[in-house]
Recover the amino acids of this structure.
């Protein structure tokens, strides 16, 4: 019990500590792929520090929602990151929440960001919020579908249980889990505003989704929003790692050596997936706004197929 | 009687103005001017440029049948003239600008809103014989309305999130679909007409090269050719060839980086990195050979300011053979990426008939089946001795504009090969005689046809000058191209046009 509280605290800090490095790493790999030198992977830490030093300018037309949103958003994403096992499944909060709670927490963060985007009354904020909500309305069902198919396979919606189940070899090579992985990757791309859904590096106001919502933010507010984005990216990478490739993760009762292996495995997996993300983003153009429905509809379909294949394989 | 008359026949009802070269200028009275405008409605006479002087309006026209070019002038003592914008929609903004600058009223023009004057000048009609005091706080600009359920406005600019030139874009959108786009420009107004008046030739040439920085060779060349026409100055053959070399290098440098930038606006950054490297190599070669990365101030009235030796030719040959391979690789990055082609194909379509109505030139026109190229018609040396193709496509979408530019780069590379092989010897600069006169020149810049008209006094000074950027006739097409597209595709369309801001804000 005490161990799991301690591990939970480590996990809480780890999520925030590693997130900027993951984002910085993705940016660095993308820059190198484009024959640019690129900033150091530590640059996001410096950016956050700089933003925290700066004055936060708030539009006259903005209400308290605008000021509260960065904290609520960050808190919700951070809370969500507490329940996704990174290096160990022995987390104090793990029994308290499952994947459905995770979707709800991320939905809360998105809801507040979208509200804040509309609050200042600028056209870009409204544009970004409306696009974000369109993406959310398509991505959330797909995410829940993934959750259901995984819970059907493993008998639980808790990520810790699913990880343990996969590790125990209870699944083996299954079509369902492959389909669910593809669906989750697609949802993760959409939720994190990566290419081909959104371009996190663009300066073109009219094409922005997530950036348009936070366009009015500055100073510590912007730092909170940026940090929430970075933690969300790390969270999704950790989730994919934990659900589909949990090898190395420390199970309850692991020795300190096991925890160290878990930590190492987590870092290797995270930066491998981050590199793959950067390579993928470099090789594809952003899609038209109205194709989002096809893309995320595809994710939903894959989630659905994962469930169907599960029943088919059981029947056979 | 005038039913099938050619442009020159028609204009002969006016009086010929002496010392206008190389194409004649006719002064028309009110009745003849009105007849001309009414005749233009049916005739295939292309409007090349429209500008004014205190108390007089000029239009440059080309008869598309015979290829003959002429300027028609209308003295307006009552400060009014029959608006050309009634029959040539491309002239509407030109005439709004004429009203702002010279205070001449275009009669019959429905759109009387100011264009260049945003109400922040110290006086109204700064170029008129009698200036007016400012009107006080200007009324808000009345954007054209769009009415209907669920419509909303999106104001964009003039300050943008990227480091680009200022321009305001007002969208009326229904959800993501653009119902109407209206541009508002003029934020870069520099008062070129006023700055040019009275400038010594050397200074005026420097200023001409700075009107639109990315087209500095085209502008300097057009200005030099107009001055040479006005003074009857014969430029040595070597100067013509070197000018063409610089102009083609400028065209390639602009085309390659824009092709990359279009891809980047679809969030596909690799081609931009690739193409930027090519452009950088070209600019460094320019700096090495001509002393300036953009070849600024290299084309001067009377010839070119710097010669090219055999070593320079070798440097260029070596660079271009490498560039050709690297460019094709970059084009492959574009044409082998289906997700990118999905964005560019069918996006931002300009119909051929619309391109024709506005007389759009350059790659915007050529991607919509208007094959016009000033290097062919009217043509100027040395292009008559060189062999090159003018690519034309009919689709009019972003993809067509990219592909036309790709083919133009290939054509320019071929031209440079011919220029390096056939570069004649001799001097590359002569003195411009001190003589009064008027000259008009048309030069194909990378965006299209740059027209420059100049009047010189006898002391080697510029009395008046006008610079017409091809973007005047391309900006309105952008408004048409985006209609029915989605808001998020605007940056892609805009980049595929890449119209000049500084060149039209004058």
């Amino acid at each position: 019990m005490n161990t799991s509280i301690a591990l939970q605290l480590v996990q809480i800090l780890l999520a925030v500590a590693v997130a900027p490095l993951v984002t910085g790493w993705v940016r660095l790999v993308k820059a190198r792929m484009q024959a640019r030198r690129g900033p150091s992977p530590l640059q996001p830490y410096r950016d956050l520090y700089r933003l925290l030093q700066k004055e936060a300018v708030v539009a006259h037309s903005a209400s308290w929602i605008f000021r509260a949103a960065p904290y609520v958003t960050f808190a919700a994403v951070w809370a969500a990151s507490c329940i996704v096992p990174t290096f160990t499944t022995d987390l104090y909060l793990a029994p308290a929440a499952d994947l459905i709670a995770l979707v709800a927490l991320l939905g809360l963060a998105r809801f507040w960001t979208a509200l804040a985007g509309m609050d200042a009354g600028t056209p870009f904020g409204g544009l970004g919020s409306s696009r974000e909500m369109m993406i959310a309305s398509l991505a959330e069902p797909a995410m829940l579908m993934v959750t259901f198919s995984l819970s059907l396979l493993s008998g639980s919606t808790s990520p810790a249980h699913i990880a343990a189940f996969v590790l125990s070899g209870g699944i083996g090579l299954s079509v369902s889990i492959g389909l669910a992985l593809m669906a989750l990757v697609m949802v993760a791309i959409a939720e994190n505003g990566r290419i081909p859904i959104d371009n996190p590096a663009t300066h073109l106001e009219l094409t922005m989704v997530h950036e348009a919502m936070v366009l009015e933010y500055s100073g510590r507010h912007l730092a909170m929003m940026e940090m929430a984005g970075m933690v969300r990216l790390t969270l999704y990478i950790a989730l994919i790692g934990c659900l589909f490739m949990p090898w190395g993760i420390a199970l309850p009762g692991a020795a300190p050596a096991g925890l160290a292996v878990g930590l190492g495995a987590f870092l290797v997996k995270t930066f491998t997936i981050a590199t793959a993300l950067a390579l993928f983003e470099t090789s594809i153009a952003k899609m038209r706004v109205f194709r989002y429905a096809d893309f995320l509809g595809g994710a939903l379909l894959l989630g659905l197929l994962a469930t169907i294949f599960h029943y088919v394989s059981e029947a056979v | 009687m005038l039913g099938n008359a050619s442009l020159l026949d028609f204009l002969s009802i006016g009086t010929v103005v002496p010392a206008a070269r190389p194409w004649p200028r006719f002064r028309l009275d009110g009745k003849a001017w009105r007849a001309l405008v009414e005749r233009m409605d049916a005739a295939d006479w292309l409007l090349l440029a429209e500008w004014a002087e205190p108390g007089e309006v000029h239009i440059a026209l080309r008869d598309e049948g015979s290829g003959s070019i002429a300027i028609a002038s209308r003295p307006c003592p009552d400060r009014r003239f029959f608006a050309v914008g009634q029959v040539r929609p491309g002239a509407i903004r030109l005439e709004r600008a004429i009203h702002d600058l010279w205070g001449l009223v275009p009669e019959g023009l429905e759109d009387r809103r100011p264009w260049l004057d945003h109400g922040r000048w110290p006086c109204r009609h700064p170029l008129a014989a009698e200036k007016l005091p400012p009107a006080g706080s200007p009324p808000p600009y009345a954007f054209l309305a769009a009415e209907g359920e669920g419509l909303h406005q999106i104001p964009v600019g003039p300050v943008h999130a990227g480091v680009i030139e200022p321009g305001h874009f007002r969208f009326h959108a229904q959800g993501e679909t653009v119902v109407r786009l209206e541009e508002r420009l003029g934020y870069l107004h520099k008062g070129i007409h006023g700055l040019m008046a009275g400038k010594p030739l050397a200074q005026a040439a420097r200023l001409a090269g700075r009107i639109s920085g990315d087209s500095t060779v085209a502008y300097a060349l057009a200005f030099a050719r107009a001055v040479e026409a006005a003074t009857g100055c014969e430029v040595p053959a070597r100067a013509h060839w070197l000018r063409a070399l610089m102009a083609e290098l400028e065209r390639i440098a602009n085309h390659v980086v824009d092709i990359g930038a279009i891809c980047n606006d679809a969030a596909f950054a690799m081609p931009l990195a690739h193409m930027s490297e090519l452009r950088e190599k070209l600019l460094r070669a320019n700096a090495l050979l001509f002393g300036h990365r953009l070849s600024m101030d290299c084309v001067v009235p009377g010839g070119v300011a710097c010669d090219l030796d055999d070593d320079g030719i070798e440097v260029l040959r070596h660079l271009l053979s490498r560039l050709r391979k690297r460019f094709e690789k970059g084009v492959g990055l574009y044409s082998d990426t289906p997700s990118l082609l999905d964005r560019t194909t069918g996006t931002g379509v300009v119909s051929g008939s619309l391109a024709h109505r506005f007389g759009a030139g350059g790659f915007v026109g050529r991607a919509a089946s208007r094959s016009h190229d000033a290097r062919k018609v009217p043509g100027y040396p040395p292009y008559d001795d060189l062999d090159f193709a003018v690519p034309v496509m009919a689709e009019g979408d972003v993809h067509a504009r990219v592909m036309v530019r790709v083919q133009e780069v290939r054509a320019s590379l071929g031209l440079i090969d011919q220029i390096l092989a056939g570069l004649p010897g001799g001097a590359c600069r002569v003195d411009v005689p001190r003589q009064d006169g008027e000259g008009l020149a048309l030069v194909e810049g990378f965006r299209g046809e740059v027209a420059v008209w100049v009047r010189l006094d006898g002391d080697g000074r510029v009395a008046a000058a006008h610079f017409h950027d091809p973007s005047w006739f391309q900006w309105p097409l952008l408004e048409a191209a985006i209609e029915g597209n989605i808001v998020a595709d605007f940056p892609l369309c805009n980049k595929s046009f890449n119209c000049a801001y500084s060149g039209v804000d004058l």
